[in-house]
């Protein structure tokens, strides 16, 4: 009788986007290497630069959209301009 392998969970896919590209999904995004630089970016918006420098953005949490209002994630995430 063959032994069955236990199911291994699929690796979590990380959504990323770069400065100048259109945002693929509305949510809270932070800059790679600086998780404190976090902001809400909506789908279709052009991904911003951080302090004038191009950046790689990583989605931290998808926003729960209700009408035009997005649910705010954990209080430890900061919004940058």
Please characterize this protein's 3D structure.
- The protein is mostly beta strands and 81 residues long.
- It contains no helices and six strands.
- The chain has strands at 16-18, 27-31, 34-41, 56-62, 65-66, 69-70.
- The protein is elongated.
Q: Which strand order does the major sheet show?
A: 1-4-2-3
Order of helices and strands: EEEEEE
Low-confidence stretches: 66-71, 73-81
* Number of E-type strands: 6
Per DSSP, what share of the residues sits in E-state strands of 2 or more residues?
25-35%
What separation lies between the terminal Cα atoms? 61 Å
The number of distinct helices, counting runs of at least 4 residues, comes to 0
Task: Characterize the quaternary organization of these chains.
Answer: single chain
Largest sheet: 4 strands, antiparallel
Question: What labels describe this entry?
Answer:
mainly beta, elongated, disordered C terminus, two-stranded antiparallel ribbon, about 80 residues
List the helices and strands and how they pair.
Elements: E1 16-18, E2 27-31, E3 34-41, E4 56-62, E5 65-66, E6 69-70
Antiparallel strand pairs: 1-4, 2-3, 2-4, 5-6
What does this entry show, briefly?
With 81 residues, this protein is an all-beta fold. It is 0% helix and 33% strand.
């Amino acid at each position: 009788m063959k032994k069955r392998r236990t199911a291994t969970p699929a690796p979590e896919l990380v959504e990323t986007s770069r400065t100048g590209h259109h945002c693929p999904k509305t949510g809270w995004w932070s800059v790679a290497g600086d998780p404190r630089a976090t902001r809400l970016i909506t789908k279709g918006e052009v991904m911003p630069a951080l302090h004038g420098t191009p950046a790689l953005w990583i989605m931290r949490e998808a926003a729960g959209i209700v009408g035009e209002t997005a649910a705010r994630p954990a209080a430890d995430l900061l919004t940058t301009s």
